[in-house]
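1st attempt posting a full record on here, be nice pls
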Amino acid sequence: MGRAWLGAIRAEPGAELAGVVDLDVDAARRALADAGAPDVPVGTDAVALARETGARAVVDVTVPAAHHPVTTAALVAGLPVLGEKPAAATVAEALSLVAAAEVTGQLFMVSQSRRYNRQLEAFRGQVRTLGRPGVLTTEFFKAPRFGGFREAMAHPLLVDMAIHPFDTARYLLDAEPVAVYCESFNPAWSWYAGAAAASAVFEMTGGVRYAYTGSWCSPGRETSWNGSWRLSGELGTAAWDGDHDPVVEHASPPAAAGDVADPGDGIAGALAAFLAALDGGPVPRGEVHENVLSLAMVEAAVASATAGERVLVDDVLERAHAEALATETREDVRARLASWTSVRAALDQVHRGAPAA
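the predicted structure (as tokens):
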């Protein structure tokens, strides 16, 4: 993904690549040489290199375990951050980053890149012509042989991939998760050590249900990486296969769907939205306050699959808040966390980071 972001930054007219950071500077130099930019400075510390080069923002493409320290350091140094998903390795760490963004006044945006898709925007427009939503479903069936860490994870599908459709469901429904019942399991032929398949039903605000079922060891007739979607509403049904234009069928003449804005494509769309926000534009999708509940859906689904029972998302948030308070090392961030009387209420206060100087 680091190489993908190098390409996106270099292709974006409003951005300039100031430097590349990696614990292995030779890896950084190789990536830059392959990208045709061998003279770009490299280093092992993002804040230090930003100060040397005059960089005005950080794109954090580190592994999830490094998201919290790297992003915190950048925010404290006065640098807005665009980070790869998830916001952090745990909801507790993500809440720490929410508080750090508030304390520093800097923008932290998580790149939920699969939201940046014109077909998804068209599908969302169709959904809004169907009256009250009843059931939203996603089917996701792929058979990738990644090798490496994914094949050793306890819940590879839920932890590494499901955040994308979970986040998309929130966006499509304009609703937030209330509770989930999930079963995670591993088919007998699976090449994964952990549970490579899962089924989850979320209760969302307003009473709508979101049902997700998927497998990462399902060869034949594979779905799109975006999944296959269906929304059943009061006035009809809309469907999207994840790769082509969505379709809709109404039970009666529909209301006009309106024009569909072009959100850009994937990480390039996320980067453009981030830059626009730094230039005084609107709060971008994926701003950390707005994004945490997508990660909470993952953590709640894993907790449900592990316990074999329905899990309330507010319970996940409150446990994460307690953990964040207990482990936070910065006094100003801990004080901000301690000031929250409700995690939900704190997350509802979408925060705008100050434009870069």
